[in-house]
Amino acid sequence: MPWDRNQMAARAAEELEDGMYVNLGIGIPTLVANYVGDKDITLQSENGMLGMGPFPFEGEEDPDLINAGKQTITELSRTSYFDSATSFAMIRGGKIAAAILGAMEVDEKGDLANWMIPGKLVKGMGGAMDLVAGVGRVIVVMDHTNKHGDSKVLTECTLPLTGKGVVDRIITNLGVLDVVEGGLKIVELADGVSEDEMRVATQAKIVD
Known about the structure:
Helix content is 15%, strand content 25%.
């Protein structure tokens, strides 16, 4: 069976190592906070919070504590707060080791499109363009295909780009792919997913 949203988030959390400062994008990446476990990871939200905890239990929400996706979150004993200028100074200054982001499209060159669909109303580009330019490692977490069954892992992105050649690893409901020279390499398959299923669902070139 392909991974669900929580299983994708749990797999993304496995990418994190003790001591890392990590930014979580909106969507599935926000769920990663629930799977950090005992690792010494400091999660950063570009709206001004360093040291995000997991989502609160129902009835324990604090409306003043939100992530970049406007979801209520929890704080830790070491949490700190600051303005957006300080937040983006951390990101642009290379202080964030990794970003885990959602995507509308990603391609075999590591190009990323995750901020707009032409003709549709958007709230803004958010911090994604700064993140992909400033962090050490970019991990994309998303569904492998859209609701029509078309691949979102492409030979070339068709939507406006967030960044060119910025993606290092792609985690989808079908498995894990790395951006390597000449295309994408299969790193891991979700339980019950075959390599043929992964290849059929992927428009991008998969190399051995």
